[in-house]
Specification:
The chain is built from 4 helices and 7 strands, in the order E-H-H-E-E-E-H-E-H-E-E. With 167 residues, it is of the alpha+beta class. Helix 1 packs across helix 2.
Length: 167
Amino acid sequence: MADILLQEYRNEKSQALSLIKSFWLSHNGIKQSDEAALEDLHHWTQEGHQLYFIVYHQELIGFVHLGSRGAGIDWLEDIFVLPIYQNKGIGTRVIVLVEEIVRTYSESLYIEAAARNEKAIRLYRKLGYECLNTISVRKDFDKCKFDVVRKEVLYNSEFEIRKLKNK
């Protein structure tokens, strides 16, 4: 997919805000306000962060947000491809392009995924992300608001992977 490019954000505010709002709507069903999208944009473009547009056939179809957690900008914080362009290999190509960028100054690229996001985890694994780096655990205060997706054993302890119940 040579027709996929990453274009560094250079103050194309309206395009970025539109994609950020689409990101939250697609991922969490949240209709984000202009002010909240602007806050994300400000955060994702400050020092220690880098925002790239995903360009496909000269059209902006998503973004990649890279961040730093103390060292180089080597965390893939967010990746988003507009739903009509998903499942076409674009996300895979974008991650390869990000790896090429980060490889010039870091030994590793880090990616986090929600445990319930099996599709993303399968993609990352397929792309060679096989080293566990950190583990996040969460305490849900009202467990009856969640459905158990499945259970996993790690270090001989059972953990539940949960998602909010559909309303």
